[in-house]
Amino acid sequence: MTSARRQRKSLPAGIFLCLGAAVCFGSLLLVPASSGASTTTKVVSDWRTGLAIDGIDPVAYFTDGQPLMGKPDFEFRHEGVIWRFRNDGNRAAFAQNPDVYMPRYGGYDPVAVARGVAVAGNPLLWAVSRQRLYLFFSNAARSQFAINSDKIVADAEAKWPGISGNLTR
């Protein structure tokens, strides 16, 4: 028997269990932390604050052509999440017809939805197409959508009922 093997045999059996647990725990520390966005709800939101699309006013994409932060003074609860708006007019427009202003597929990336997967979109990576707001996980997904939006939307429409049925409210 080699000297290394003799030393291992002389160590208590529990030491290997502790070493294994330490290695597993240490590897968990290397996994990147999530951004806080929930990917189990029908509308992407921050699980800590309950804010949809990171507190950005969804109406601003249409009226101002860019994502602008909403204000805590102008909030509206819809679909189990809190939406923020820049002013009372934007809040009223959303409240009257939320389906027009909400990101399609609850803020999930339409390219991923078309593949049958729910991946949270980033409110800063967006596009308005055919009067609907879409959020994307990456610039690559947004570029792919720009090239072939009709097919992606058709595929996403077909897959969304199955995906959304597995998400909670």
Structure description:
This protein is globular. The protein starts with a helix and ends with a helix. It has helices at 3-10, 14-29, 60-63, 88-96, 98-101, 110-114, 139-165; strands spanning 37-38, 45-46, 71-78, 81-85, 122-129, 132-136. The protein has two domains: 1-31; 37-165, no CATH class. The strands form three sheets. The chain has a two-stranded antiparallel sheet with strand order 1-2. A two-stranded antiparallel sheet has the order 3-4. A hairpin with a 2-residue loop joins strand 5 and strand 6. It is of the alpha+beta class and 169 residues long. The chain has seven helices and six strands.
Write the layout of secondary structure elements.
Elements: H1 3-10, H2 14-29, E1 37-38, E2 45-46, H3 60-63, E3 71-78, E4 81-85, H4 88-96, H5 98-101, H6 110-114, E5 122-129, E6 132-136, H7 139-165
In short:
The chain is an alpha+beta fold and 169 residues long. It has helices spanning 3-10, 14-29, 60-63, 88-96, 98-101, 110-114, 139-165, and strands at 37-38, 45-46, 71-78, 81-85, 122-129, 132-136. It has seven helices and six strands, in the order H-H-E-E-H-E-E-H-H-H-E-E-H.
Descriptive tags:
globular, 6 strands, 169 residues, 7 helices
What is the CA-atom radius of gyration, in angstroms? 23 Å
Sequence of strands across the biggest β-sheet: 1-2
Number of strands: 6
Task: Specify the number of helices.
Answer: 7
Proportion in helices: 40-55%
Q: Identify the overall geometry.
A: globular
Overall tally of domains: 2
Beta-strand content:
15-25%
Low-confidence stretches: 13-40
Distance from first to last alpha carbon: 62 Å
Structural class: alpha+beta
State mean pLDDT (0 to 100 scale).
82
Order of helices and strands: HHEEHEEHHHEEH
Major beta sheet summary: 2 strands, antiparallel
